[in-house]
Design goal:
With about 700 residues, this protein is of the alpha+beta class. It contains 19 helices and 20 strands. The structure holds adenosine-5'-diphosphate and magnesium ion. Magnesium ion (MG) binds next to α3. It is found in: Cytoplasm, Cytoskeleton. This is Kinesin-like protein. GO terms for molecular function: ATP binding; microtubule binding; microtubule motor activity.
């Protein structure tokens, strides 16, 4: 299915997954409010506080997975086609959305040490490298990155320096990317698993309370797969597939108090990315919106392609079955239901600029040429490599043309250098034995020879370095059957194939059932003929009742949505009030303790950097003189440490806003207080 289309529109695939009741819920005797129809792909949710006659709400998805579902069911049926598409050069995204504790991390990551509990991320590793090992006449390069968005800051989970915050940049050709994000080229499952574990460790180490942290941060595992292949035109083409595996922050409404009673400072911020996600989805689905607010958060900017753009996207909505999570489950179902209507336009990314694979290929060619120049990859070498193969008898494929397995490389180099050295030593001895030379001359010649031997040694070192680099780079280019070998046996392969067929069949059956259901409703009207007036009245009354019930359901839905809207609005207003109060305080301080001329100086230098979403200081412009030197001057030129503190931001925002004036008195030249300007500065900045 996926990957067949080389363009065109395609809806977001949305599936729902419900975890089993956990022990705590069982012990507390919570009832189940979710009903899943796996065959039909439907979830029904019953309001535990429902009055009599209130029907459960039903949602239809591309697939649903109940408490008995296995990780492999979800992978084979839903995710596998997406990964296949990524291997062909499409962009792909999997988003796990849902309340904390409903199985997002279980779905994405799972318990990777237990094979049947592995989630989407580790399963995709197996899938990707097995595919590559079975490929023919293709070269692959696979690399991985791991990042986290927490409080609207991007953290590279694979970087050494964890304090560094990364920035989003935009390239007109390749779109949004993260500057300086580290990525690791991986040759096999083990290596990429290592990358995953490294990042996961960093993630948990960095937080004092992992649960709270993970419920408020978004984790994104990124895999980039580049594939080069000779096309029908005889030219080599590179396709690039990018895979985003996203474990979103918990979708629950943040409670006003933290777990330990304190007010969570970041609550409003962490909601930003998630609420922006909701807004982007709403805007995409609402046909009238011309503006999609991708720029409102880091997450939506990063996922721009995945939502309404060039990517195939799957959303897994995770649900808790118990009555106490009714509100959150319903809200998740509604969110997922809306997302179904997003249309993407995926296409194969062919021959983009700046692929790492091309860089590698060129570097390998360059290294090879250098080694050849040093006589390391000459004819002699090829002969010896072939001989070695014959002896080992393990490599069945005879590579035609210029084959460059490094087998003979070292031996060859060793021989060459040994020969050279022996020759020099011989010559040295000859000089020593030559009695016709004067001792001075002899000494000079000997020194010359010594130097030549030393040069030779250096040359040897340099060549070794080159050879090592060459080997390392070549090993990273994955070629099926050569640098990466498939170890599954025929029986396993058959089993895999069967599983995939079954998954495909299940999917088709469900699609047909859903289609039939839809048609049933449409044709209900047409099929009926009546034998008597009495019968007509009866049937029509029944139909009327049905429609009336439907109407009531829709009305209730509207009321629910309205209530939800009001709640969100109240939250926003509350947040706004809080910020206004904060602003007033800052304004009071600024107006009373900061000399106006200092304030003006700062204001004149401030500008807003839209790219980084931050206020910044213009560099001090010198009146003549060396401007370079001036530019390099840190922003602490006036004696403060940070480029811009929160307070400066506030100062800017309020400078022209009469509403926030708290002091009637204009501050005098001394700053309006006893504190002198200078002391005021130090306190103002450092004390913040
Ligand atoms: P989230 O990441 O959404 O906060 P987790 O993935 O951490 O939730 O899941 C919470 C708990 O429920 C974990 O102990 C996890 O093992 C368990 N769990 C979640 N989904 C399932 C499932 N489908 N089957 C079995 N256990 C699950
Ligand atoms: Mg989690």
């Amino acid at each position: 299915m996926a990957g067949r289309s080389r363009g065109g529109c395609e809806a977001l695939r949305v599936v729902a997954r419900c975890r089993p009741l956990n022990r705590r819920e069982e012990a507390a005797g919570y009832e189940r409010v979710l009903e899943l129809d796996v065959k039909l792909g439907q979830v029904s949710i019953r309001n535990p506080r429902a009055g009599p006659g209130e029907l459960p709400k039903t949602f239809t998805f591309d697939a649903v997975y109940d408490a008995n579902s296995k990780q492999a069911d979800l992978y084979d049926e839903t995710v596998r086609p997406l990964i296949d598409a990524v291997l062909q050069g499409f962009n792909g995204t999997v988003l796990a959305y849902g309340q904390t504790g409903t199985g997002k991390t279980y779905t994405m990551q799972g318990a990777w040490a237990e094979p049947e509990k592995r989630g989407i991320i580790p399963s995709s590793f197996e899938h990707i490298f097995t595919h590559i090992s079975r490929s023919q006449n293709q070269q692959y390069l696979v690399r991985a990155s791991y990042l986290e968005i927490y409080q609207e800051e991007i953290r590279d989970l694979l970087a050494k320096d964890q304090s560094k915050k990364l920035e989003l940049k935009e390239n007109p050709e390749t779109g949004v990317y993260i500057k300086d994000l580290s990525s690791f080229v991986t040759k096999n499952v083990k290596e990429i698993e290592h990358v995953m574990n490294l990042g996961s460790q960093t993630r948990s180490v960095g937080s004092t309370n992992m649960n709270e942290h993970s419920s408020r941060s978004h984790a994104i595992f990124l895999i980039t797969i580049e594939c080069s292949e000779t096309g029908p035109d005889g030219e080599e083409h590179i396709r690039v597939g990018k895979l985003n595996l996203v474990d979103l922050a918990g979708s629950e409404r943040q409670s006003k108090m933290g777990a330990h009673g304190e007010r969570p400072k970041e609550a409003s911020k962490i909601n930003l990315s998630l609420s922006a996600l909701g807004n982007v989805i709403s805007a995409l689905v609402d046909g009238r919106s011309t503006h999609i607010p991708y720029r409102d958060s880091k997450l939506t900017r990063l996922l721009q392609d995945s939502l309404g753009g060039n990517a195939k996207t799957i959303m897994v909505a995770t649900l808790g079955p118990a009555s106490h999570s009714y509100d959150e489950s319903l809200s998740t179902l509604r969110f997922a239901n809306r997302a179904k209507n997003i249309k993407n336009k995926p296409r194969v990314n062919e021959d983009p600029k700046d692929t790492l694979l091309r860089e590698f290929q060129e570097e390998i060619i360059r290294l090879k040429a250098q080694l050849e120049k040093r006589g390391m990859l000459g004819k002699k070498r090829r002969r010896s490599s072939r001989r070695k193969k014959a002896v080992d008898g393990e490599s069945a494929t005879e590579n035609e043309g210029e084959d460059d397995n490094e087998d003979g490389l070292e031996k060859n180099m060793e021989n060459y250098l040994k020969e050279q050295k022996e020759r020099l030593e011989e010559e040295k001895a000859a000089i020593q034995d030559d009695h016709s030379l004067v001792s001075e001359e002899k000494q000079k010649l000997l020194q010359e020879k010594e130097k030549m031997i030393e040069d030779l040694r250096k040359e040897q070192e340099a060549t070794e370095l080159l050879a090592t680099k060459y080997k390392a780079m070549e090993s990273k280019l994955l070629i099926g059957g050569r640098t990466i070998v498939d170890h599954t046996n025929e029986q396993q392969k058959m089993l895999e194939l069967k599983r995939q067929e079954i998954a495909e069949q299940k999917r088709r059956e469900r699609e047909m059932q859903q289609e039939m259901l839809l048609r049933d409703e449409e044709t209900m009207e047409l099929r009926e003929t009546y034998s008597s007036l009495q019968q007509e009245v009866e049937i029509k009354t029944k139909k009327l009742k049905k429609l009336y019930a439907k109407l009531q359901a829709v009305k209730a839905e509207i009321q629910d949505q309205h209530d939800e809207y009001i709640r969100v609005r109240q939250d926003l207003e509350e947040a706004q009030n809080e910020q206004t109060r904060e602003l007033k305080l800052k304004y009071l301080i600024i107006e009373n303790f900061i000399p106006p001329e200092e304030k003006n100086k700062i204001m004149n230098r401030l500008y807003f950097d839209g790219e980084e979403d931050q206020w910044k200081f213009q560099p001090l412009v010198p009146t003549g003189g060396n401007s370079n030197q001036m530019k390099k001057r840190p922003t602490s030129a006036v004696g403060y440490k940070r480029p811009i503190s929160q307070y400066a931001r506030v100062a800017m925002a309020m400078g022209s806003h009469p509403r926030y004036r708290v002091s009637e008195r204009e501050p005098g030249p001394g700053g309006g207080g006893e504190v002198t300007g200078e002391v005021g500065w130090g306190w103002w900045v450092d004390g913040g």
